[in-house]
Amino acid sequence: MQPLIAVLMLPIILLNILGAVVGVIWLMILGEWGALGVALSATIFGVFACSFALMPGLLVAAPAMILLEKGGAARFAAYPLMFINLLWTFVVMCAWALFWFGYYLKQADVSSLTPMLLIAFSVATSPWAFMAQKEAQEGNNHSSNTAFFLQLACAVVFALLAFVGVHPKTALITFLIIMSATFLLNVVISVLEAIAE
């Protein structure tokens, strides 16, 4: 999986670095100050908002950790709770990303579609990339992989809408397929790690 990620990483890195800058400058030229203000606010408060939205998942994650530490039969009771927590995380991630793409699609016209989608990509992915980076520093690389696939899904949505001109429903279905595959991959990895232990 690492070689695949390495190949896909360059366009994602370029989109992360240049996308927001190009989108901001482009929207400034077009005079889209309202869209830029919303993007700035979402970028500043995005990590807080996403962290807050993840809190209900902690209601099941905390008991799952306690059950895991007990070991034995209690360990098996932890797995459904961990599944629920993971599912909730993916629901929040998808909802956050899709909300911003939907918001900026509604703001866009023919001349501003590409920069609006660049800003949507940035706002949709930046909180998750930031949180994944913090978790990676603490030794948890699962979040980095998940954040990468969210960025990939959002990059595909951007490309489909900006360059291919597909219907938004097609882009939505594509996004959900990528994120569902990522969710299943996370479940499989978790199961394999549990078996290894």
What's this, in brief?
By secondary structure, the chain is mainly alpha-helical. It has helices at 2-30, 33-70, 73-107, 113-137, 142-164, 168-196.
Overall mean pLDDT stands at 90
Q: Uncertain spans, ≥5 residues at pLDDT below 50?
A: none
Estimate nothing, just give the exact number of structural domains.
Answer: 1
Strand content: under 5%
Biggest β-sheet, characterized? none
Shape: elongated
Q: How many individual β-strands?
A: 0
The number of distinct helices, counting runs of at least 4 residues, comes to: 6
Helix proportion: over 70%
Structural account:
It contains six helices and no strands. By secondary structure, it is mainly alpha-helical. The chain has one domain (2-196). The model has no long low-confidence stretch (mean pLDDT 90).
Q: Could you outline the blueprint of secondary structure elements for this entry?
A:
Blueprint: H1 2-30, H2 33-70, H3 73-107, H4 113-137, H5 142-164, H6 168-196
Helix pairs in contact: 1-4, 1-5, 2-3, 2-4, 3-4, 3-6, 4-5, 5-6
Offer a few descriptive terms.
elongated; 197 residues; mainly alpha; single chain
